[in-house]
TrEMBL record:
GO biological-process terms attached to the record: response to stress
Record's protein name: AAA+ ATPase domain-containing protein
An MF annotation (GO) of this entry: ATP hydrolysis activity
Alphabetical keyword list: ATP-binding, Hydrolase, Magnesium, Nucleotide-binding
Listed cofactors: Mg(2+)
Residues covered by the AAA+ ATPase domain: 227-361
Catalytic activity: ATP + H2O = ADP + phosphate + H(+)
Keyword Transmembrane part of the UniProt annotation: no
Record-linked Pfam families: AAA (PF00004), AAA_assoc (PF14363), AAA_lid_At3g28540 (PF25568)
Homology family: Belongs to the AAA ATPase family. BCS1 subfamily.
Domain of life where this protein originates: Eukaryota
Keyword Coiled coil in record: no
Length: 478
């Protein structure tokens, strides 16, 4: 009763003499001093919402980087390799005070170790952020303040956007370790569409397709399709498939998730990993043809006691019900042998655009010469372009030759010699292959003739054919 009387008197005086914003601060302080926790509300924002990253947590973490004050005593400082700026974040246990439209709010970083709903059920660090304020401000916090935090964080991310490369760095023994399966580093790959040594028309078509994809959010919703796009990059090793993926990521400013199917054992693990990826990202599954077990499993030739990762499980995420768990996502498959991929993966809706990364072309050579030597024209270009059309060499092989000297004349002369040697080696290989083919064809003719002779002998024995009818054929064969 004494506490209530004191609060009532303070409120009456405050309304007459003190502005409303200052009233809220004073009353909040008095309430804490007098042990009146009932006036406070605390929102707990966990890092993960089930298997997916909590976007409010991510936004709050970014927003709080701009609210660090001298009152904070412990900070976390880090810097990625080749990055200029330091990343300063609030350490666990620290509190930050923010004011929004006259409302005072208190943020606190919380971390604990406890069992979570993760693969294998292992313990991991559970991180969360707590937001406390007066209960009467609940509606404004939920309808205005938190949307403001999210919007502000998006602007900060856009200003400081760094493309990330995610891999299964925290994935060990079939369990998520440290609160999340994906570990990340900055993707510092310098590849761009301007530096790619690929066919000009194909490059232009791909850029148009990417631009069309990112601006069609309403279109995908209207036609009832998940907002995703699938690409298959196929061709010999060294033709630039990895560089193309990096160029796509740098062009769109999309993070990249590198998924190794050989690290997984069950479809449930695959689902949890894929659902935990962020929107506006590229999921990469390299050398899909080497995942032979996926193909064997579809045919039933696998031991279900040791593994349950199936082709159908992968397909279910690519274009099944699980494909709708996220927006603006790109899936890229790579292979050196397109003919080895299960046809179920190749159809539209799974691999929408097939991109052939071919051997080096004259246009690709000019791009490489400009990148490595800084020359766009040279007297040796004509001979080099002629040789490139006559021999199969990859952009990686051309680049390796151009790197042998910083002087254009020396590097290009060395490239000509390399192409001539490659042409001679290719001709010898073709000759050997032709000889083997001719021998094989000749042997097939002999076998076929023997079959004809044996068939006629059978007819003679059965009386269907006279001996005189058979003799000319027999003599001609001998």
């Amino acid at each position: 009763m004494v506490v209530k009387t004191m609060l009532h008197e303070v409120q009456t005086m405050a309304k007459q003499l003190i502005p409303q914003p200052l009233q809220d601060k004073i009353l909040s302080g008095i309430g804490r001093l007098l042990g009146d926790p009932s006036s406070q509300m605390t929102l707990v924002i966990d890092e993960y919402n089930g298997y997916a990253m909590n976007q409010i947590y991510e936004a709050s973490e970014i927003y709080l980087q701009t609210k660090i004050s001298p009152a904070v005593s412990r900070l976390r400082v880090s810097r990625a390799p080749r990055e200029k700026n330091l990343l300063v974040t609030i350490n666990k246990g620290e509190k930050v005070i923010d004011v929004f439209e006259g409302i005072q709010l208190k943020w606190e970083m919380v971390s604990s170790t406890e069992k979570q709903l993760v693969m294998g059920g292992d313990k991991g660090e559970r991180r969360s952020i707590e937001l406390s304020f007066l209960k009467k401000n609940m509606e404004k916090v939920l309808s205005s303040y938190l949307p403001y935090v999210v919007e502000r964080s998006e602007l900060i991310k856009e200003e400081n956007k760094v493309v990330k490369l995610y891999s299964l760095g925290n994935f060990q023994g079939g369990a998520i370790v440290g609160g999340g399966a994906w570990g990340s580093i900055n993707l510092d790959h310098p590849s761009t569409f301007e530096t790619l040594a690929m066919d000009l028309k194909l490059k232009e078509d791909l850029i148009k397709d990417l631009d069309r994809f990112v601006r069609r959010r309403k279109f995908y919703k209207r036609v009832g399709k998940a907002w995703k796009r699938g690409y298959l990059l196929y061709g010999p090793p060294g033709t630039g498939k990895t560089s193309l993926i990096a160029a796509m990521a740098n062009y769109l400013k999309f993070d990249v998730y590198d998924l190794e199917l050989t690290s997984l054992q069950r479809n449930s693990q695959l689902r949890k990993l894929l659902v935990s990826t962020k929107n506006r990202s590229i999921l990469v599954i390299e050398d899909i043809d080497c995942s032979t077990e996926l193909q064997d499993r579809q045919a039933g030739r696998y031991n279900q006691t040791t593994t349950q990762l199936t082709l159908s499980g992968l397909l279910n995420f690519i274009d099944g019900l699980w494909s709708s768990c996220g927006d603006e996502r790109i899936i890229v498959f790579t292979t050196n042998h397109k003919d080895r991929i299960d046809p179920a993966l190749l159809r539209p809706g799974r691999m929408d655009m097939h991109i052939h990364m071919s051997y080096c072309t004259p246009y690709g050579f000019k791009t490489l010469a400009s990148n490595y030597l800084g020359v766009s024209n040279h007297r040796m270009f004509t001979e080099i372009e002629r040789l490139i059309t006559e021999v199969e060499v990859t952009p990686a092989e051309i680049a390796e030759e151009l790197m042998k000297s910083e002087e254009a004349d020396v590097a290009l002369e060395g490239l000509i010699e390399f192409l001539k040697r490659a042409k001679i080696a290719e001709n010898k290989s073709n000759c050997r292959g032709k000889k083997v083919d001719e021998q094989g064809t000749e042997r097939q003719d002999v076998v076929q003739s023997e079959k004809v002779v044996e068939a006629k002998r059978q007819k003679i024995r059965s009386g269907e054919l006279e001996t005189c009818d058979f003799m000319p054929c027999a003599y001609s064969f001998l």
